[in-house]
């Protein structure tokens, strides 16, 4: 797959990774600067900028990653729901009697549909 297509499909995971990487850099730089200063008055600016900024970026990154995972789970559930609806409609069209059972396909689903707004 081309990198551009992967970037458009997984933009949320890329943004989450970038936020977490930036947060890591901010926290490490802040820690180094705070540990180099012995005066508490000189440490506070680094705590306020690097520490709180790093925690904020870490929070944004984890939220984006969890949102992407939830979106994938909903997409899988939608695919399962659609296949069950098609199976029930096919069963109703065939005029199955009440005592018959319906079975699902044994083949595993290997691809899940993307949202309608994304080109494939």
Question: What would you say about this model in short?
Answer:
This protein has helices at 3-9, 11-36, 40-94.
Overview features:
mainly alpha; 3 helices; rod-shaped; 120 residues
Structural class: mainly alpha
Beta percentage is under 5%
* Radius of gyration from CA coordinates: 25 Å
- Main beta-sheet strand count, sense and barrel state: none
- Note the overall shape: rod-shaped
Describe what you observe in this structure.
It is a single chain. About 75% of the residues lie in helices and about 0% in strands. The protein is mainly alpha-helical. The protein has one domain. The longest helix has about 55 residues, at about 40-95.
Secondary structure layout plus pairing:
Blueprint lengths: L2 H7 L1 H26 L3 H55 L26
Helix pairs in contact: 2-3
